Amino acid sequence: MAAWGIDEHRIDTALAAVRAEPVSEPERDDLFARAVWSVLIEPGDSVAGKLIAAVGADRAARMIIDRAPASALVEACEGDITHEKAIDALDRWLPRLRSDDVLRSLENAARCRARMVVPHDRHWPEGFAALGPSEPVLLWARGDTALLRRPGVAIVGARAATGYGEHVAMEFTAGLAARGVAIISGGAYGIDGMAHRAALASAADTIAVLAGGVDRLYPSGHDALLTRVIADGLVIGEAPCGSAPTKWRFLQRNRVIAALARATVVVEAGHRSGALSTANHALDIGRPVGAVPGAITSAASAGCHRIIREGFAVCVTSVTEIMQLAFEGDGVLELPADDDAAASSGDDPVHTRVLDALRPRRGQTTLDIARAVGESESRVRAVLGLLSIDDRALCGDDALWRRPENRAKPSSAE
Fold first, then answer.
1. Which residue in 89, 208, 299, 323 has the fewest CB atoms around it within 10 Å?
2. pTM of the entire predicted model
3. Which residues contact 85 (CB under 8 A, 6 or more apart)?
């Protein structure tokens, strides 16, 4: 530890505060080295990734601390990087080599109860291996880190989403949630936000990947939403706590979304939408991409239409098609085809039965409604959450559910 030039007790204390389990002596240097690397580099730095893969995070960090020349980096990587790239990398990294910044990032993480997750941890996502040298050196996480190993689908799209796009995102999320699929997105306005909201309303697992530090919930308008994701799901990021999101970090954040998911579905995207960046990252690592068609006159769907037309994405119009795209029909329990068709069209029979059971003046518990409609309480709770998004069901201060008085009771035709 003396080689770091920092008080050993302070390092031990800082690491213990951001790890879920006690830190063993053999892993301390690797953990602290990864904290150093998270401060030195921008997400997706492939030169750092190659150096770490060649000699380990600990030795690689000590080479930078000892001001090793570019030739030493080239030799350590056995020629996998050029001398010019090594020089450029040192020019990027050395100005950030400040021990106070590393300790501050650890202390900031501890302050917001973030956890450090590293490649040898049991919850590290297997899918990250596809990123090669661009694999994250660590993740900062707030929430349930076990979700990192859950089978998931990325639902992404335009920030300036239309009502159609938000409705499709909500319905697809609900259908995937019913099949045990985790919903992954970027926490942004528009489609991302709707995907997270619908997942939470369905009591489904959801992961939000941030471009900045996980202590700086961004966008600020989603502070409450992301706080709920932390409580019931997971928020992750690569950048050290205290870091602001930048354009480059948003672009690199998208590769993490793509690598976490079995498939990426673009619900809406303009010609220059950032959601297309996620789709491109997915294609780069061999993951399937789906795109939702929209009106041919809609600028919000122009990007989706382009990637379908050019053969980069599969046209998806139902939850079943997304399941086939992501899992080839295996791995996740599917609902009967009739239920899926109903859910994708917005006429889920369970939704109709729950609406029929609701009363405008007499409040009911979820258990009361479950008994009335003949469904499990967990399923009814998920449906009520979705109905509440559309203001078709209200939960009062007494925790009882009612139908809004200005909403008509569904007819038998519904």
1. 299
2. 0.80
3. 47
